[in-house]
Backbone:
């Protein structure tokens, strides 16, 4: 069966599953819409959390970034996984014990201020909208190649699917849909990796194949990759650092605390029955995430080697453009791969030198999706990868859109402006807000800033500089008052946004080989996507400073902070 037909069938089946689940799991109350009724099993919630968090950036972009950044791409692996440890240990159990629906609701109650709640909503929307841009880009990229429709058409189809199951089912429908999406995306990611690892190294486990010798040779895969890229003038794959050590540290820290501060991930821990289930859910989520994240470096390295071997064959002779393989022609149609014959010899010259490099565009987002085609895997594997990429983008988009709509309907409308509305009216407002959020996300998807992971990394920085410090101080410091929290959130997100906009022309450069001459004016060489860590420091400093100069929180708020951190069993024992 030809690829396009097979892809339509596989993707169509997955979409039918999502829609069927949405009809089955339709939300009938605000509790079901916001937190799925609060009865999700920790293992199921861990799987849904993994799908919610492993976005188009994880599935499509991360391996592509590592493929071209090499060792420097480890910031994404360390940052995104390390953040879950912080979330599991320091935030999730306490927020679940508090028992509210949304992050802004906790901030509003803890800091006894409607203004604090509104500021938290604004920060949440800025972070979530920035994040959702990347998911829309991922949907458009996957559709444009594999269903052979335009980027705009693919994005519209994706919006319609998300609209149906997110608006209808709320968190309840999204949770069960995300479980199905996790199963699809993890199969789509690991099966091609196993095929390619077997082909290149003879080892069926990509994690082990990545460190093995090439089939029929005593040369290690990474040694061969280092040789290939350095001969073309690129940085050595296994030692290249992203700009400098300070930047690597700041980027990793920004992604870690940004992960712990992302509202659409945090609200997943409100869906489990008990406090201990929140911590258990985070553990299971790490297990499910680790399957993809330990595979990603292997996928990245093998994809880069396959790409180089195709464009720059081992014979040392450049590939003639007229003899380019079919996968090359397919991706040229999308505009994500472009060749310009600068010297008119008809041969493809791919080097790190901007003056002589004729591969004028190799979009990092194509690496995972194109890898099975480059490796000449069966059509059903390629179709499965398309379905997996769409599942990753759709699952996270739904979670983000729910966080946005909940902030608007529950925190602003019900919590601030119209507290007298009924539950039925609030549920309708939630669905209207969800539809509006999907419309806004679609608009931004039609005009994306650039490649998916860069946009997502910025979203993590914004969450790190605004929401994470507020939550940490709200849980662990009884001295932080409303004035300090409000000033800290505003200062943190403002300085981060100002830094980003000041360097807006260079924040989304898709690669590292041309960044060196752009970082002269950066603060200690820290790039804009990594500046969230500095914004977080500013947030903490301003909050503590302002709190010390103003009146301490009321006694009942200080008691609330102590109560949140005491395990339920201890409280019951003390009562007796």
Residues:
């Amino acid at each position: 069966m030809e690829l396009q037909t097979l892809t339509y069938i596989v993707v169509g089946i997955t979409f039918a599953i999502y829609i069927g689940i949405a009809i089955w799991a339709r939300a009938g109350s605000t509790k079901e819409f916001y937190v799925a009724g609060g009865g999700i099993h920790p293992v199921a919630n861990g799987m849904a959390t993994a799908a919610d968090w492993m976005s188009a950036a994880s599935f499509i972009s991360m391996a592509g970034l590592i493929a071209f950044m090499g060792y420097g791409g480890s910031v994404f692996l360390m940052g995104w996984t390390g953040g879950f440890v912080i979330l599991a240990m320091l935030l999730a159990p306490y927020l679940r014990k508090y028992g509210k629906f949304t992050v802004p609701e906790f901030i509003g109650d803890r800091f006894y201020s409607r203004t604090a709640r509104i500021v938290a909503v604004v920060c949440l929307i800025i972070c979530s909208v920035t994040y959702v841009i990347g998911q829309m880009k991922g949907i458009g990229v996957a559709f444009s190649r594999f269903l052979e429709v335009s980027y705009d058409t693919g994005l519209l189809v994706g919006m319609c699917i998300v609209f149906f199951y997110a608006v209808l089912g709320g968190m309840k429908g999204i949770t069960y849909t995300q479980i199905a999406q996790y199963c699809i995306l993890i199969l789509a990611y690991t099966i091609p990796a196993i095929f390619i690892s077997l082909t290149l190294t003879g080892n069926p486990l990509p994690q082990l194949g990545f460190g093995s010798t090439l089939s029929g040779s005593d040369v290690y895969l990474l040694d061969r990759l280092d040789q290939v890229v350095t001969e073309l003038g690129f940085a050595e794959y296994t030692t290249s650092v992203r700009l400098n050590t300070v930047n690597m540290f700041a980027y990793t820290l920004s992604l870690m605390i940004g992960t712990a501060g992302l509202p659409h991930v945090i609200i997943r821990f409100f869906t489990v029955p008990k406090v201990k289930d929140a911590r258990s859910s985070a553990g299971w989520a790490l297990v499910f995430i680790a399957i993809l994240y330990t595979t990603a470096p292997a996928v990245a390295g093998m994809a880069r080697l396959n790409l180089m071997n195709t464009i720059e064959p081992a014979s040392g002779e450049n590939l003639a453009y007229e003899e380019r393989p079919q996968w090359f022609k397919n991706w040229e149609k999308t505009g994500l791969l472009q060749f310009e014959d600068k010297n008119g010899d008809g041969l493809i010259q791919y080097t790190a030198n901007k003056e002589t490099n004729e591969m004028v565009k190799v979009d990092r987002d194509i690496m995972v999706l194109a890898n099975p085609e480059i490796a000449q895997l069966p059509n059903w594997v390629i179709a499965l990868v398309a379905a997996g990429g769409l599942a990753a983008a759709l699952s996270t988009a739904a979670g983000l859109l729910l966080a946005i709509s909940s902030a608007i309907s529950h925190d602003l409308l019900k919590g601030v402006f119209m507290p007298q509305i009924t539950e039925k009216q609030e549920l309708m407002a939630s669905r209207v807000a969800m539809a509006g959020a999907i419309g806004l996300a679609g608009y931004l998807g039609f005009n994306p800033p650039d490649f998916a992971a860069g946009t997502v990394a910025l979203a993590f920085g914004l969450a790190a500089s605004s929401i994470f410090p507020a939550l940490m101080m709200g849980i662990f410091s009884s001295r932080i008052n409303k004035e300090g929290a409000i000033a800290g959130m505003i200062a943190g997100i403002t300085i981060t946004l100002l830094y980003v906009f000041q360097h807006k022309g260079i924040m989304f450069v898709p690669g590292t080989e041309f960044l060196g001459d752009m970082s002269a004016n950066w603060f200690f060489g820290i790039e804009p996507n990594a500046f969230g860590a500095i914004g977080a420091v500013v947030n903490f400093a301003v909050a503590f400073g302002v709190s010390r100069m103003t009146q301490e929180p009321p006694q009942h708020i200080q008691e609330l902070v102590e109560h949140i951190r005491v395990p339920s069993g201890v409280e019951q024992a003390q009562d007796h």
